[in-house]
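Regression test attached.
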Amino acid sequence: MGMDSENNNLSRLQCSYASLDEAFEIGKETYRGQQYSHIYFARLHLMRTLLYSLVSQWKPQTPVCTVLGLEEGKECVIVGTLYKHMKLKPCILDEYSKERSAVPLAKPHNFMHDDDYLVLEDESGRVKLGGDLISPSVFVTGIVVALHGKETGAGDFSVLEVLEAGLPPQIEFPLKSREDKYIVLVSGLNVGNSNCNPLQFQLLIDHITGHLGDEKEQSIASQIVHVVIAGNSIDIPRGLTNGQNLASKDLSRIAEPIKELDILLNQIAAGLPLDIMPGPNDPANFSLPQQPLHRCLFPGSSAYNTFRSCTNPHSFELDNIRFLGTSGQNVDDLEKYSDAKDKLEFMERTLRWRHIAPTAPNTLGCYPYTDKDPFFIESCPHVYFVGNQDKYESRVIKGSEGQFVRLISVPKFSESGVAVVVNLRDLECHPLSFGTQFSS
Amino acid sequence: MASVSGSMKGFYRQKKNTTKSSKKAPANAKSDAPQLVSHADDDYSASEAMLRQFDMNMAYGPCAGMTRAARWERAQKLGLNPPQAIQTLLNSGKVQSESLWDGRI
């Protein structure tokens, strides 16, 4: 447990760390006016090669053909990118439509409609998908799948079965008997928001750094080896960022949240390694992959080598256990265009589709890569987390080749006061909640 | 307003096509200043023709918005085995580095 019995000094446990964010850093890419056809080509090619190898075991007798090579009535397997036609999806051209009232009003949080249909597309062509066995509410634009079925007289492809890529191969979970080591995941600090109670986060910092509680509690805190902040750490008042010239007193109001955050993070970084990821509201670029928050925003904390500013999505290894996480944009976008029983189900689907953000670039901002798709998941993580969600949820999913993944939905700390603690020994996790209300 | 004097034919001034021989191969057209400029008769060499075939080949993905060399590198990286001859041609530097759609779409 790291206790020095002679003079009762507790020392914090350590763990090895390796960052795997290189694929998400935009250093060598150049923008020369390219559009998104290239990233879709890279995605289709990568996944089709993979699916072809799986199809030969899935349907060994059925021929594989391209969309243009479909013959009516002949059973075959086709592989391509799904496109979901959605009636309610906002389209810029609707502004020019003369019959604006003809389109039903869309709910702002979900654009699904019973009339949505799926289309499969490859380089040769596209075909509308029919049949009851493929439900548009589960799928979104941008996923690459293999379909077994046949073309009907009407020109649709009637689907009999769908093959997804499935969970990617996973490196072995290090099983040697080990001590309890914990990683804390937190997101949605929203420092600077008028509803955010700074005392809650200060309590969390004090707990992690061992300034709270008696020896027993401090010894628990000494087992915390890493902290990851998954996005939306600051919340600059909206009225200040709408492009108007600011009075001098407002200028300092813009910088206040980030200065306050730096002071808070300084306390954590002084004690243990800290990763901070950008989120949708943070001062980072808009499209995925979001680049690390700049060091100049954290003059105090970035002096420590324990402070790491990371990309979103963020992939890293702690003691050979692989973590993958995002600040929530991928799952939030899936929620607008498809249906699932909970956020963890969306997360599970992204793993089974082997793609972190299939709706990028269709409805989720994304960099126009020309020769790769960095959101393709090559190696299955052991822990997959998504930040800025409404509540804490977690479960373990298993793959067909023995993979297992701990899925974690990390809630917004400023609203819930809940952070998540994961034990590296067995991937058990539990919420850590902080309340500052005094009961009357 | 056209002048009332003078025939209608004068109003629509016509120029006689003064090219000497009408049966010309397209390769010689540029020396005659034809009235209509036809893009189909752009003078391009055999190497450019080969590169255009490379641009149009669907197997290597979209060509618009990237240089031919970058597209060849991508095809190589994705394991599509693009012909080495194309890369040699591109490295020689005497050919157009952009795809045929560059500046047109």
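Expected vs. actual: identical. The interface with chain A takes residues 58-59, 61-62, 64-67, 70, 73-74, 77-80 of chain B (CB under 8 Å).
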